[in-house]
Amino acid sequence: MFEIIAEPNRRAILSLLVSSEQSVGEIERQLRMPQPTVSKHLRVLREAGFVEATVDAQRRLYRLKPEPLQEVDAWLAPFRRFWSAHLDALERHLDRMAQSTRTKRKTRRRK
Amino acid sequence: MFEIIAEPNRRAILSLLVSSEQSVGEIERQLRMPQPTVSKHLRVLREAGFVEATVDAQRRLYRLKPEPLQEVDAWLAPFRRFWSAHLDALERHLDRMAQSTRTKRKTRRRK
DNA sequence: CGTTTATATGCCTTGACACGTATATGCTCT
DNA sequence: AGAGCATATACGTGTCAAGGCATATAAACG
To answer: Which residues of A touch B76 (CB under 8 A)?
Structure first.
């Protein structure tokens, strides 16, 4: 799964498809990559469940499927907790800094 | 960045570090992989900014750095919007189904 | 000092994969 | 049926990265 999205062209294709479904030719033109390359990457994406296609005569319209990327998202969850904990710590720290600064000011003024 | 986390052993290391910092030896033992392998992967992770190390005598304690994984998270954002839109559509659909079912029941009862 | 412990690095081989080019499949329209 | 377009596949090639093994660096400790 992670191997799939490690490939830059594949990520580009996925990003294209997030707005709406596209035919192979449209992808080919927008990303300026040779048609066999597009088809090969689409095959990989399809077999991994990232996209699905419907036939429209000679064209195939590819669209995004959410599940695999949701799994990536799920893998990230523990790390999100990690860095939000760190952000909280940073915020608390900054709060303390601000507070002590304010305290010092007050103290000085009272003098 | 994506290439970094495409490697299963590296993902395992990252998952280990999410709880707390670990020495090379601890990682080696918990993941049961040869020490040079661990060191090499840690090098890759370090150079890509996923982890950092502090020296403790002969040991190096590795800990997570949030930024690169946050970028992965950021890349996922558009897709999150995509699939939550789809979930919304599904919910609305199910709501309509439930509503029409209830209506039918009422109608039948009234007969 | 020499030895043990902890970690890093170098070299080599192997396998996977992306790409280019050519070709096949399949549909449409005249 | 034949020509042309859209997409898929096959094959050969080059590159790059992971793993295994040996070895280097460096600190602790007796």
So the answer is: 69, 72-73, 76
Bridge partners of residue A60, in order along the sequence: A55
The terminus-to-terminus CA distance of chain A in angstroms comes to 65
Full-model pTM: 0.81
Please enumerate, as own/partner, the contacts of A33-37 that have beta carbons within 8 Å and a separation of 24 or more: A33/A9, A37/A9
Question: Quick one: how far is CA B102 from the chain centroid?
Answer: 41
Assess contact for A82 and B18: CB atoms under 8 A: yes
**β partners of residue B52:** B63
Q: B83 and A73 in contact (C-beta within 8 Å)?
A: no
Question: Are residues B64 and A75, on separate chains, in Cβ contact within 8 Å?
Answer: no
Set of chain B residues whose Cβ sits within 8 Å of the Cβ of A79: 14, 18, 64, 66, 69, 73
Amino acid in the structure at residue A41: H
pLDDT at residue A21 greater than cutoff 90? yes
